[in-house]
Amino acid sequence: MTSDVLEVSFQSGFKSIKNLTFVISNVIGQTVFQYSLTEEDLKKGVFVVKIDQIKLEKGFYLTKISNGELSTVQKLVVR
Q1: DSSP SS3 for 60
Q2: Is the pTM of this model over 0.70?
Q3: Which DSSP helix (H) or strand (E) runs through 74?
């Protein structure tokens, strides 16, 4: 059995990983997953999240990468 993964790639305008986090929120703003990026993630510009570990229901979510000052938000649809 293979697990579904979410591969998150980003072009980093972030200079350091200090407080750099990836968050998935549901449509009412509740955090359903949070991941602190590592130095390796920052160097590669990509990291992988296993969807089955998060147990996301089908629906719409927002993803956000932030360091407290800068952030980027994208829509995520789970089918």
Answers
A1: strand
A2: yes
A3: strand 71-78
Q: What residue type is assigned to position 56 of the chain?
A: L
> In the CATH hierarchy, which fold is given to the domain comprising 5-78?
Immunoglobulin-like (2.60.40)
Amino acid at 2: T
Query: pLDDT per residue over 13-53, tens digit each?
Result: 666 667 789 999 999 999 999 999 888 887 788 888 877 77
SS (H, E, C) 4-55: CEEEEECCCCCCCCCCCEEEEEECCCCEEEEEECCHHHHHHCEEEEEHHHHC
Query: What does the domain layout of the chain look like in residue ranges?
Result: 5-78
- Cβ distance 72 to 63 under 8 Å? no
